[in-house]
Amino acid sequence: MKIPVLTIDGPSGAGKGTVSRALAQHLGWNYLDSGSIYRALAIACIQAKISLEDIDAVVNIAKSMQLEFVCADELQVKLAGVDITAELATEATGNIASIIAAIPVVRAILLAKQHDFQQSAGLVADGRDMGTVVFPQAEYKIYLTASATERAKRRYKQLIKKGIDANLSQITAEIEKRDQRDTERAIAPLMQADDAVYLDSSELSIVQVIDTILTLIR
Ligand code: C5P
Description:
The protein is α/β, with parallel strands linked by helices. It has helices at residues 16-27, 34-47, 55-64, 85-88, 91-100, 104-115, 130-134, 148-161, 168-184, 206-217, and strands at 5-9, 30-33, 67-71, 75-79, 82-83, 123-127, 140-145, 197-200. β4 and β5 (82-83) form a beta hairpin. α8 crosses α9. The two termini are 20 Å apart. Bound molecules: cytidine-5'-monophosphate (C5P). Cytidine-5'-monophosphate is lined by residues 12, 34-35, 38-39, 94, 97-98, 101, 127-129, 178, 182.
């Protein structure tokens, strides 16, 4: 039986994670947060104290890392049995993930891990290249974006809410840098798939984005 896939791609801070999790729960589908796989690899590389320029070492870690996704109230990620969920969320981890994500062999190795998520009644896959590279045959494709200023504001609020010290202009600069790295890289760059629906969430609430996508699916 063919398992339906809904891909939600877009830049960081566009609301993909929140929207994808809510949609997966609503539809009773599995959820793939592909960014967390790149982030987990970033943490594994930091733990191994390797240089990110040592491609062979990064590749070896990508091949051997033991990742586990535990569906509790919040998605929990374990690396070699240790819960790394909190570390995954930091800006530093995201920035290292984006450097590692530009290595072609690494992307090829992580492909199979992502395909494994296509199970249960369906899959909501969130990332940068879900509709273009990982699940090009997906039935439903969304390209979710928002202005860099709006995304930085959201990220800033999230961090402050968590009690983490944050600086809005620094976050805006980091978001712009990460956008540039993700869209300009040679392999699987962030871009809208030809058959994806473009959705700008700058002026929309999370509920409005979810409703718009559900209407499109139906
Ligand atoms: O989405 P998230 O911010 O967790 O992703 C962290 C980084 O991982 C991104 O900036 C991007 O470079 C990389 N990534 C990717 N392809 C994906 C998901 C994430 O290259 N499908």
